[in-house]
Amino acid sequence: MDTFADRFDGGCKWREAAIEEAQEGRWVRDAVERQVIKDIGAATNPLHGGRMAPFTEDSWHVRIGRIANWAGVLRLAARSGGWVLQPVAGRIPSKPAGMTELLSGIYAVGEQGETWMRQLSKGELPPEDEIAKAEGFLTGPGSVEDLELFFYD
């Protein structure tokens, strides 16, 4: 079984691989990919009011729900474009990296949010530092929330 650290590290590597391919011009997004990324941004609006992560003043349900939302949105995005989400923990992204690798990397963190939500419903609190890392990965300057800024096409 993979750990949050495995998922997080893999998620970062896969996301970065796709962004690097795009910035180096080896992956040029098509119209569908550009629209899907815009739709992901709209569907995952964190409603943080400009606050910076971690969102310690929010309840556990809100914080974890904000992370878990990404998983469902990314599953729908992958289905809409015919991309198949891949496990990222301990794996190297394919070359050239593209939309599958990008979505899979982000999904690894969102899916962890779903796991935390199930644990929370049983009264188990997730580690605060892991929640904060996931929030920072998804929200704020340089995060997935700013994904559109990483593409030059």
Notes on the protein architecture:
It is a single chain. This protein has five helices and no strands. The chain has helices at 4-23, 31-43, 60-81, 99-121, 128-138. The mean pLDDT is 94.
Supply database-style keywords.
mainly alpha, 5 helices, 153 residues, 0% strand
What general outline do the C-alpha atoms trace? globular
By oligomeric state, this entry counts as: single chain
The helix count comes to 5
Distance between the termini: 38 Å
Tell me the helix content: 55-70%
The Cα radius of gyration reads 15 Å
Largest sheet: none
The total of beta strands comes to 0
Task: Encode the helix/strand succession as letters.
Answer: HHHHH
Show unreliable segments: none
Summarize the structure.
This protein has 153 residues and is mainly α. It is built from five helices and no strands.
